[in-house]
Amino acid sequence: MSLKQSALIALAVSLASISAWELYWRGQGYWPTLNDDKDLWAVHRARVEEATEKDFVIVGSSRAYFDIQVGAFEAATGRKPIQLSATGSSPLPAFHDIVRNTDFRGTVIMGVTPPLFFSTTFPMAPPWERIQGKVDHYQERTYAQRLNYPLSAFLQQNLVFMSGDEEEWADDIDLKSLLGRIRLGNRTGAPQMPPFYFFGEVSADRNMRMTPQTVTDTALANSVARVWAFFGKGAPPPDKDATMAFFLSDLEAFRARGGSLVLVRCPSNGGFREAEKHVTPRTDFWDDLVAQAQVPAYHFEDYESLKGLTCPEESHLSGPDADYFTQELVRLMQADGAIPNR
Amino acid sequence: MLFNSLIFIVFLAVVLALYYAPLLNWKGKKGMLLLASYVFYGLWNPPLVLLLWFSTVVDWVAGKKLAVEENPHRRKGWLVLSMVVNLGFLSFFKYGDFFLKNFTWLVNQIGWDFQPAPLDIILPMGISFYTFQTMSYTIDMYLKRTERARTFLDFALYVTFFPQLVAGPIVRAGDLITQFYEEKKATANQFIWGLFLLTIGLFQKVVLADTLLADAADTVFGAGKLLHPVDAWTGTLAFSGQIFFDFAGYSTCAIGVALMLGIFLPDNFRYPYASLGFSDLWKRWHITLSSWLRDYLYIPLGGNRHGILRMYVALMVTMLLGGLWHGAAWTFIVWGGLHGSYLILERLQRRYLPFKITARNGLFLAFTTFSCVNITWVFFRAREFSTAWDMITSMLWLRTGGEKTLELATIVQVLVVVTAMFLCHWVMRDRSMKEVAAKTSPWVLGLAWGVMLFLIFLSQGSGEQFIYFQF
């Protein structure tokens, strides 16, 4: 046995195959992207511990994530916000974590996507579990995990094949995702989710921006819209009483220590907006939330400058529109005194 | 720190560089390994390093006293001190909540309305492994089976040696401490073989356990409803493969990393799913634990020296406690009880229905053993008895109307991997990997090694913790 020879062959085979794999996927139009994962969330959650009363924290679902652009917000306010929104999630667990586990007394901007905000307080339900998993990871992460993350992030930002995102996109290229695409009929008879393709890219400062392809490729945008329709069909009815009570309890504690909260209803269009009107009518949900919370609140339909914005896939703004939305939102909030002028 | 993490690659590179650089003498290298081991452990939860230190100091002192003390009562006293400290830690950290919960249930049954707050004790990673390892030293010292460690540094490194600290193999003092007395340096072949073992271990963990099997097992055991027999069997087979690849993967990594330092660790697995019966299984599965239980529990309980009935009792007690060692839950005790029952039934069969094992019936016997082992895994994996009962009744086709929860592609994937695993164990059961590698062309070995590396990169892995860390 010549182990040295075997080791050299193994090195050559692995380097050649990994390089070919990387080049192949780059040739298919992929580019290296950072994963939107719990480790990245935890890095930014840690910033809340040091934040002052002049700082801003954004919580919410993917709309607050895509539509409030970190750079545009910083340019308008002079302070870089801490973006803690998470896709497909209720904002309540993250707000609860900030209220109960930190001394933060600055401004929390809470994105309200009514079907998610009012969805549930059940810990195992996806809108709750997705963000609670990130909160738990922050509380429990080890020093080894903290040290590991910069290495992992470096590779993600430089190698296409490091694309195993937590979202499990239909176009991920890790082994599990590739095998998951093999379908042999529908044995379980469960409704089949339409393919959910990657349509937003996150940066190290946790700014989420819609990819330009989603704006220009109607087929891609429509495929994402079909995913929203799929989720909408399977969603249980909202639990307004439990979610409202949970939120108001945390809000009371947050205000008592001097914190400020702003509610923001980001744009949605088309079939998604119609479904929202049916499931969570504005008067019963948003208006009642604002009335009970008694905090500054901004609904995109109330402002001429915001109501005309179009979401390519019915739920999120394109990058340039998100920049505009952010600037306009900040201008409105500053004009109302909801947040200080820079 | 996990073997399947990027930070471990950096850590290992630094340790190897310091180990092989001409900067330190052997004592300095051992000191460096000890410090690295504390860093390895402390990066998980720094305060819990204190437990390691305490356990190390107590057993070092006990060992030192046992080496010179001749008075039997005092000798027993030092042994008891070590046992109380180690088993006390284990009882408090691992079984505190379990004991409290059962105590509460018991007193509630007799009418006392006692509702204590849960203790919520953090379980120190690897506590079951290192306490058993240190206890073996003190017990062996008491029984005069081993020499006292020459220096505190040697002993502390024995307790803490990072490759096997958190999930074994559980190494006896005589097998490891003595290796620290003389300067160790891996030969080029040993180093490369260690690297190969590290690759095999990571492949088992990252590709086979986490990527190909874990989801099916999690889906089935987390379904919370009665399942179709095919789904129940697929989930159980998936877990059967997952736990083997996960744990054997860790052991293989540990053995490989140690070998890269020139240190030999014992085998922990020898193709257990091709076992011909349950005695054979326990000589092949988690070998270092089963030999520990045999030497420090089964034999002291009488072993086979006091008649058949006493032997069966010793066997059952050993397996029940072995089950409890794995986790603080009644499901683990049932798992141990099932294995105890299998061992007793096997002995009865040998006594009253003996038969000769041939090549033909051997495969059938291995398959039967594997099938019976799968039944026990249901109790090991299920969090509640209701889940286990639903699974077992589904698997035995005793209830109908179970739901299908796995897609056909997943079932095919699991069956292909598990069948390949079973056949591989059968082919390899009387061979060693080194022996097979020696007969393989360097080109084929290199190609297989390269493909494994490629698949590890392709799987990426999300740094999933090894299952046995929780034990």
Automatic annotation (TrEMBL), chain A:
Superkingdom assignment: Bacteria
Name assigned to this protein: SGNH/GDSL hydrolase family protein
Organism: Robiginitalea marina
Source species taxonomy: Bacteria, Pseudomonadati, Bacteroidota, Flavobacteriia, Flavobacteriales
TrEMBL record, chain B:
Membrane-topology descriptor: Multi-pass membrane protein
Keywords: Acyltransferase, Cell membrane, Membrane, Transferase, Transmembrane, Transmembrane helix
Compartments reported by the entry: Cell membrane
Family matches, as InterPro entries: Ac/AlaTfrase_AlgI/DltB (IPR024194), AlgI (IPR028362), MB_O-acyltransferase (IPR051085), MBOAT_fam (IPR004299)
Ranges annotated as spanning the membrane: 6-26, 38-58, 78-96, 151-171, 191-208, 243-265, 311-338, 359-380, 408-428, 440-458
Keyword presence, Thylakoid: no
Family from the record: Belongs to the membrane-bound acyltransferase family.
Name of the featured protein: MBOAT family protein
Species this chain originates from: Robiginitalea marina
Lineage: Bacteria, Pseudomonadati, Bacteroidota, Flavobacteriia, Flavobacteriales
